[in-house]
Design a protein that fits this description.
Elements: H1 13-43, H2 54-80, H3 83-107, H4 110-133, H5 135-138, H6 144-178, H7 182-203, H8 220-232
Helix pairs in contact: 1-2, 1-4, 1-6, 1-7, 2-4, 2-8, 3-4, 3-7, 6-7
């Protein structure tokens, strides 16, 4: 059931709440990810003045894999359940994952840090179909193009700012994070958890929506779609672009 309002010159407040939720989440995940990348690379340094570049590859892979594995299933969930409810759920999950990330950083155990990065990317993959799918339910039809453009602008800006913030945060106290200093790890963690809490609070300014296809089920085909797409890339080089 659509919750759109009559046409006006302004986008509804629900849209701005959604854009804020998306922007904070993307900013936060990039900030955490880059602090983690540099902390792991520094811990894995093989000689003075060098970094372990393998850590950048590992973290990058952990970020990408959840999108391949879970994107199709996430789309089914977005149809089967209320998108607004799922937006709230996945943002609550982000708060929990950030707490796990805090414990992982302080434990100084790379495998736990990798797990936190993987979980954070899984949360993003599960959240993504909802933020786009809910647009027609909260934005008038004639405003959809404008809303999509603003969502993409917010996404791109948040990636850039989050990456920069990750570098700034690491420059400020990253060496202490790399050394598993409890105080430094908590500074990063409190910042990331705080952003997640604000994003979750913003979710409640999005009006409730109804499921559009409650009979849909997750089937093995959901995962086959992702594997098929990945396997087709060598046959269609333009997909790389």
């Amino acid at each position: 059931m659509s919750t759109t309002t009559p046409s006006s010159n302004r986008l509804p407040s629900a849209f701005w709440a959604l854009n804020l939720v998306q922007s904070l989440g993307v900013f936060n995940s990039n900030l955490f990810r880059w602090v983690v990348v540099w902390a792991l690379a520094t811990r894995g340094a093989t000689a003075a003045g060098t970094i372990d570049e393998n850590q950048i590859f590992i973290v990058g892979a952990l970020v990408a894999i959840p999108y391949i594995l879970f994107s199709s299933a996430a789309g089914v969930l977005a149809d089967r359940y209320s998108k607004r409810s799922l937006i709230v759920l996945w943002n609550l999950a982000a708060v929990v994952i950030m707490l796990i990330g805090a414990l992982a950083l302080m434990s100084n155990i790379p495998l736990l840090i990798y797990a936190a990065v993987f979980l954070l990317s899984t949360q993003a993959a599960l959240f993504s179909p909802n933020k786009y799918g809910i647009l027609p339910e909260i934005v008038p039809r004639e405003k959809l193009s404008q809303a999509n453009g603003l969502m993409e602008s917010g996404l791109d800006l948040s990636i850039v700012l989050g990456t920069l913030a990750g570098g700034v945060a690491y420059a400020a106290f990253g060496q202490d994070v790399a050394g598993a200093s409890t105080a430094a790890c908590w500074r990063v963690s409190i910042l990331c958890c705080g952003i997640s809490v604000v994003a979750t609070a913003a979710c409640f300014f999005i009006p409730p929506t109804e499921a559009c296809a409650s009979g849909k089920k997750i089937t093995p085909g959901c995962w086959q779609d992702g594997s098929r797409t990945t396997a087709s890339v060598p046959e269609h080089p333009h997909l790389v672009l």
